[in-house]
Automatic annotation (TrEMBL):
<keyword id="KW-0275">Fatty acid biosynthesis</keyword>
<keyword id="KW-0443">Lipid metabolism</keyword>
<keyword id="KW-0444">Lipid biosynthesis</keyword>
<dbReference type="GO" id="GO:0000287">
    <property type="term" value="F:magnesium ion binding"/>
</dbReference>
<feature type="binding site">
    <location>
        <position position="56"/>
    </location>
    <ligand>
        <name>Mg(2+)</name>
    </ligand>
</feature>
<dbReference type="InterPro" id="IPR008278">
    <property type="entry name" value="4-PPantetheinyl_Trfase_dom"/>
</dbReference>
<keyword id="KW-0460">Magnesium</keyword>
<dbReference type="InterPro" id="IPR037143">
    <property type="entry name" value="4-PPantetheinyl_Trfase_dom_sf"/>
</dbReference>
<keyword id="KW-0479">Metal-binding</keyword>
<dbReference type="GO" id="GO:0005737">
    <property type="term" value="C:cytoplasm"/>
</dbReference>
<dbReference type="GO" id="GO:0006633">
    <property type="term" value="P:fatty acid biosynthetic process"/>
</dbReference>
<feature type="domain" description="4'-phosphopantetheinyl transferase">
    <location>
        <begin position="5"/>
        <end position="96"/>
    </location>
</feature>
<protein>
    <recommendedName>
        <fullName>Holo-[acyl-carrier-protein] synthase</fullName>
        <ecNumber>2.7.8.7</ecNumber>
    </recommendedName>
</protein>
<keyword id="KW-0808">Transferase</keyword>
<dbReference type="GO" id="GO:0008897">
    <property type="term" value="F:holo-[acyl-carrier-protein] synthase activity"/>
</dbReference>
<keyword id="KW-0963">Cytoplasm</keyword>
<comment type="function">
    <text>Transfers the 4'-phosphopantetheine moiety from coenzyme A to a Ser of acyl-carrier-protein.</text>
</comment>
Length: 123
């Protein structure tokens, strides 16, 4: 059963500005996300923006926002087929367990200067 849906859009130029400050990126992104996106060169900002939008969309899908959640405890990766996946650690997993969550669906896209993510939570 669907228990939550969230969507978010992020201006890619915002993330491009953040990329000038590695310490800032480390506050919001899991080390694996940073490692994977560095190899993407000029498209790294697109990838990070989509991942940040996914984190925000997760908070909206919960219906409680991200208060009390460490953003880097939300890991966005791609499976071998390229499908985006969201993995939760620590404080990010607690509200999902509280709603008896069983599956997270994630969709990412970017166009021009915007990255967009949609999250559906099932229990």
């Amino acid at each position: 059963m669907i228990v939550g849906f969230g969507i978010d859009a992020v201006d890619i130029s915002r993330i491009q500005r953040w990329m000038e400050y590695e310490g800032l990126l480390a506050r919001f992104f899991h080390p694996q996300e940073l490692m994977e996106t560095k190899s993407r060169g000029l498209t790294a900002a697109y990838s990070l923006a989509a991942r940040f939008a996914a984190k925000e969309a997760y908070g909206k899908a919960l219906g409680t926002g991200l208060k009390g959640i460490t953003l880097k405890n939300i890991l966005v990766t791609n499976n071998p087929n390229g499908k985006p996946e969201l993995t939760l650690f620590g404080d990010a997993a607690i509200p999902f367990k509280r709603i008896h969550g069983t599956h997270i669906h994630l969709s990412l896209t970017h166009e021009s200067n915007m990255a967009i993510a949609g999250v559906i939570l099932e229990s």
